[in-house]
Amino acid sequence: MRNILIIAGNTFHQAIRDKILYGIIIFALIFIGSSVVISSLSLEEDIFVIRNFGLAGIYIFGLIITVFLGASAIYEEVERKTTYLLLSKPVTRADIIWGKFLGLLAGIGTTILLMAVAYLLILLVSGGSLDFPAILAVMLQMAEVALLLAVLIMFSIFTTPLAATIYTILILYIGHVLPLIQEFAIKAGGTTKYLLMVAYYIFPNLEKFNIRNLVVHNIPIPPKEVLLSLGYSAAYILLALFIAQRLLNRKDM
Amino acid sequence: MNPAPIEQKQIYSASIRNKAFPFLILAIIIASQYYYDIRRSERPLIPPTIIPAQILKFGDLGLHSAASSLMWIYTIQQVGTHPKKIPDLIKVVNDLDPKFGYPYAFAVLILPPLGFKDGGVEIALRGVREVNTDWKIPYYLATTYHIFFEDRKNALFYFDIVARMPNSPQEAKAVASRYGTSKTVRDQTKDIWASIYETSNDELVKERASRYIIHIDMLELLEKAALIYRQKYGYYPKKIAKLVQPGILKEIPLSPLGLEFYLDESGRALAK
Amino acid sequence: MIKIDGLTKYYGEQKAVDNLSLSIPEGTIFGFLGPNGAGKTTTIKMIVGINTPDSGSININGRTPFMPSAREEIGFMPEEPHFYDQLTGLEFMRFAANLFSQKSQAKESLEEILKKTGIYEARNKKIKNYSKGMKQRLGFAQALVNDPKYIFLDEPLEGLDPIGRRELKIMLENIKKEGKTIFFNSHILSDVENICDQIGIIHLGKLIYFGSVDNFRKDKSLEEQFVETIKKL
Description:
The complex is a heterotrimer.
Chain A: H1 2-16, H2 19-39, H3 46-79, H4 83-87, H5 93-125, H6 132-158, H7 161-188, H8 190-202, H9 212-215, H10 223-250
Helix pairs in contact in A: 1-5, 2-3, 2-5, 3-5, 3-6, 3-7, 5-6, 5-10, 6-7, 6-10, 7-8
Chain B: H1 5-39, H2 53-59, H3 64-81, H4 86-96, H5 102-110, H6 117-130, H7 136-147, H8 152-164, H9 170-178, H10 185-199, H11 203-233, E1 261-263, E2 269-271
Antiparallel strand pairs in B: 1-2
Chain C: E1 2-11, E2 14-24, E3 29-33, H1 40-47, E4 55-60, E5 74-77, H2 89-98, H3 107-116, H4 132-142, E6 150-154, H5 162-177, E7 181-186, H6 189-192, E8 198-203, E9 206-211, H7 213-217, H8 222-232
Parallel strand pairs in C: 3-7, 3-8, 5-6, 6-7
Antiparallel strand pairs in C: 1-2, 1-4, 8-9
C-alpha cells in the first residue's frame, strides 16, 4: 500500500509538470469563458446556455486531458522502460498499476477541479447563482474519467499506446450511445436484439454518469442513482485494473 | 579572406531577400483573404444543413442539451437569411432537448408572420406538453391564436393556463385574466403585445412586439384624424389620403408591418 | 552469495539463456561478458526479479529475488537508464529511496551519493536536461540509495567518457572494500580486465567460461582472447 501511494505521488508530480497540459488547460478556460460571449447570441436563456457550454467544456477537455495524460504516462513506462528502475526495487507490478492509476487520477482531478472553479466563478459573475447541481455533475464526471483511465491502462498493457488510446476513445463513444443501441435492439428483435443486448451489458454504460441534461433544467437527481453510478464505476475500475494486473504479471519486460 | 566588393553586395541583397520573403508571402495571404471577403457578397448564401437530431445524438457524447443550445444559436443566425428553414431547424433543437422551453415560444411567435401558422402552433403544442413550467409557451401560443387565427376560444384556453401558472409574471397574468372581457379586440391585442415587450429579453421578439404596438397606435391615430375630418366636413373621407391637410395630419404613417391603411364607411381604420 | 542454477529463458522459440549456472562469492566483483545479443541483459533482468525464468533458480543471500522483500538488499542499474523527465535528479533519488521500507538513507546521504557519482551540481536540474553521461551517473547513484549488499549493473561504463569510466571503476573498487558484491555486464573488455575478481563469458545464451581473468586470457589481452574464443565457436 505504501509503495502504491509513493508511486502515485511521483506520477502526479510527473503529470502536472507537463507543459502540454498547461496548453490544454488554457484552451479549456478560454472555451468556458467564451460561453459568456456565445450565450449573448441566444436571445433569452443566457444562463442556460452558459451552464450548458460550461459543463460541456469541462467534460470535453476533461476527456482530452485524461486521454493525453494516460497515454503519455503509459508510453513513458512501456516504451522508455522506466519500469526497470521500479521492478528491481521492492515494488510489485500491482503497485505500479494502482500507483500510476491513482497518480494520474489525482492529476486529472486537479485540472477538472480548476475548470469547475472557473465555471462557477464565470456563472456567478454573469448573474447566475452558485450551481450546486453542477458540482454533482462534475463529481460523476470524475467517476466516468476514472473508469476510462482504468480501461486505458488495461489496454496499454497488451497493445501500443496509440492503439490503446484509439480503443479507449471507441469505448467512450460506444458508452454514450448504448441507450440508443438499447432502443434500436428492442425495435429490431430476433438475434440482432440478443447480440446488441449482450453488447449493452458488457460495454461500460457511460450515460450513467451523465446528469448534465438534468442539471441544466434543474431537475432533481435521486441520490440512490448517484450512489449506484459511483458503485458501477468502482466495479468497472476494479475489473479493468485486475485484468491489467494479471496481464502485466505474465508479461516480460 | 573577405569576399570582394561585388560579392559582398550580392550577399547583402540575398540576405535582404531572405528577410523580406516571409513578409511578402504573408502579404499575399492577407490580400487573398481580403479579396475573398469582398467577393463573399456575390456568392450565393449556402442554406443551412439540417442534420436530424437522432444522428447528432450519436456524436455528441451524451451532451444533448449542449448540442441543443448550439443548434439553437445556429438557428437564430438563420432567421434573417433563411427564414423558410426555421421550422425544420427548430424541430432539431426540440428533438435534441425537448425540455428546452424558449425555442417553442419563439417559434409560435416568429413563424406565423413567415407563413408557417400551423407549423408554429404544432411546435408550441409540443412545448406546452413537454415543458409545463414555461409560461411563455402558452402565452405566445394564445397570442398567435388571437392574432393569426382569430380563434378566441383557443386563445382564452391558453391565456387561462398562463393566469393559473404560479411563476408567470404580473403583466402576463393581468392580460391573461382580462382576456375576453370588456375591452375591444384591438385594445386587447395592444395589451398583449405590451406585456410581451415588457417580459422579454429577446431583441427579435421585442422588435416584433413594438412593431405591432406602433401599428395599433397608428390605427388609433388615423381614427382620431378621421373624427376630426368628420367634425370639419360632416362625413368620413373615402380616400385616406384626404386626411393629409393642415389641422389634421402631416402625412399618412407607414405601418411597420408593411400593411396599407384604409378607412371604412364608419370611420374605422383598417389595414391590408 | 549469489547462486544461479540451471537458468533458462525462452523468447518465443528462441533460447535466450540456456541452462546457466553461476556462483558468485560475497565481496567480489564479477564481470559478465559477451557479445551483443548473447543474453547478458536477459540474465541480469531475471537476477534482479524483473522477469521470471522458464526454469532454474536464483538465490541471493538465501532468498529468491522474486519476493519484493528480497529486493531490499539489491541495487540495479539498467542499461541506458530512462527516468521521469520532469523530476530533478534529487527528487528522483528521494523517490527511489522512499520505495524501500527501512529508510536506510536520509537526505544527507542522498546528496553524498550524488557527490560521489559526480552529479551533485545538477541535482536540482530536471532530468530531461541531463546528458547521456549524467543519466548514466544518476542510474548508478539510484542503485545505491538503499545501501545494498548486492549491486547489479548493466553496461555501467556505456556513455561515459574516459574520465567518467575511471571514476566509476574507482567507485566500484571502494564499494567492494565495503564488503559488497558487484555483478556487472559489459562489452568494453579493456576496462574490466583490471577490476574483476572473476568473469563469466556468455555466448548465444550459454556460459562458455567462468573463472579468473588471468586464467582466461593467459598471455594475450582480454579482448584478443575473447575475440579468438568467440570466433572458434
